[in-house]
Amino acid sequence: MSVSLNNIRIVLSHTSHPGNIGSAARAMKTMGLIDMRLVQPKQFPDPVAVAMSAGSTDVLDAAQVTEDLATALQGATLVVGCTARRRDLSHKMVSARELAPLLMAQAQTNPVALVFGTEMSGLTNAELEQCQLLVHIPANPEYSSLNLASAVQILCYELRCAIIDMPAAAPVELARHEDLELFYQELEQSLIAIGFLNLAAPRRLMTRFRRLYSRAQLEKEELNILMGMVKLIRNPAQINQAAKLD
To answer: How far is CA 24 from CA 49, 59, 112, 152, 156, in A?
Structure first.
């Protein structure tokens, strides 16, 4: 089994029907993916999920259930949200075929995540904010409704196809999801402290900052530099002390 496929986690958020969880597990195993994360599923474990998995119960048995999306994404260095529609101020959106080589290249050396929302409404805006990239599956514009498990199957298929003839990547330690979220919290507090952030509508500007840093694909050391910078913004007295140490 490809190591890069092992580094891909499929995250299903607030799935309402256990049959879709089982079908998604089947779709994953067919393409060689094994890491499933479930954020507050309505019913799981469930015999319907087992029946619909068609023998991929090992994926279901190993599935991690979490109370929130942030926990499911811990350790991921690239988070991609699957959505059928464009959102205001959202991150860059690519097609499933465009995404596959990008995601697989990073998955060679770092854990990544594909996030799917509820069957009825998809991902919430708050969930999309935790993503760095968005992916859509081109479909008939007159009837674009796609079953959750079918969407998982299509993306897993594209990822497996992208493995062929992929050159080996040099290992680079990228910033993890939880560290990026901590950085965004520190950045927001620092911008509030210096009066740069409009308290009447802080989230709009912070969404733009998320887009900016998502495009940069920050390495761990780069994030450490930025974290130190934003902390000094809130405590300028440390600047003189840091200069003396230099």
So the answer is: 9, 10, 18, 6, 10
Rounded distance between C-alpha atoms, residue 214 and residue 208, angstroms: 10
pLDDT of the residue at 29: 97
Fold category of 177-245 in CATH: Helicase, Ruva Protein; domain 3 (1.10.8)
Residue 93 near residue 135, CB atoms below 8 Å? yes
Tell me which of 168 and 113 has the higher pLDDT. 113
3-state secondary structure of 173: coil
Neighbours of 182 (CB within 10 A): 13
| pLDDT at residue 80 greater than cutoff 90 | yes
Q: Which two tokens stand for residue 89?
A: 């101020």
CATH of 3-162, one of 3.90.1200.10, 3.30.70.100, 3.40.30.10, 3.40.1280.10: 3.40.1280.10
Domain boundaries, the chain: 3-162, 177-245
Rounded to the nearest 10°, the torsion over CA 16, 17, 18, 23 is: -120
- Sign of the CA dihedral with 117 first, then 121, 123, and 124 last: negative
* Tokens found for residue 147: 């079953």
